[in-house]
Amino acid sequence: LQIINPKYTASAVRKDQYPDSGLPEIAFLGRSNVGKSSLINSLCNYRGLARVSGEPGKTQTINYFSVELREKDGEAIRRTPFFLVDLPGYGFARTGGQKRQMWSDFIGEYVTQSPHLVMLCLLVDLRHPGLDIDRQAYQWLSEHGVPLQIVGTKADKLKASEKRKNMIMLKQIFPTGHDAVVHSSLKKEGSAALLERILMSLDE
Ligand code: GTP
Ligand code: MG
């Protein structure tokens, strides 16, 4: 499995700005700085596709990247077109005066009302498996019936034993019916497993 032809397509903060191509969407949500944009770049093998920063709050809009998943099906090569959707992070308020909210309203609107969203990857920093803000996000998304895949990020920052232990915790804290995927954009770990899951959700 391989992602090919990644292209930035559109940005949106309102429903009438969503692209109308009808392609299925796989979206990425999680705390600011957890590595959503980096994960998209790593899946696409394309460094500057989504903007990345060491400072939290980099991604401010819903960003759509059109891609194709290339798969060898016996002799035939199959290509499945869809969108990878980068979302702004939560848990970081850029303006101090703002009312404390989990995330901007337009993120909630996107995850509950986007007609083509087939799976939301909820990214959790594998070093911190049970933060309140992530539990709240998970709870809210589950209550709203959003199909979830948990991804433990920045796995390169942990020793093998801690990684195993924290992955077990992730599965217990966020039971989605599908096992959490461990990932490192730095070491390119876990992309194959995540692509398998993405293909599965696109086929459902
Ligand atoms: P916002 O757009 O602000 O919500 O952040 P984001 O979730 O998109 O995070 P982003 O991809 O911009 O990455 C944030 C920081 O984490 C950057 O400094 C990245 O280089 C770093 N980072 C992302 N993924 C990994 C990883 O797998 N391993 C390591 N070591 N660092 C990572
Ligand atoms: Mg980002």
UniProtKB/TrEMBL annotation:
Statement: the UniProt record of this protein carries the keyword DNA repair: no
Tree of life domain: Bacteria
Cofactor dependence: Mg(2+)
Keyword terms of this UniProt record: Cell cycle, Cell division, GTP-binding, Magnesium, Metal-binding, Nucleotide-binding, Septation
GO biological process: division septum assembly
GO molecular function terms listed in the Swiss-Prot or TrEMBL record: GTP binding; metal ion binding
InterPro entries reported for this sequence: G_ENGB_dom (IPR030393), GTP-bd (IPR006073), GTP-bd_ribosome_bio_YsxC (IPR019987), P-loop_NTPase (IPR027417)
Main function: Necessary for normal cell division and for the maintenance of normal septation.
NCBIfam families (alphabetical): GTPase_YsxC
Family statement: Belongs to the TRAFAC class TrmE-Era-EngA-EngB-Septin-like GTPase superfamily. EngB GTPase family.
Protein name (record): Probable GTP-binding protein EngB
Species this chain originates from: Megasphaera stantonii
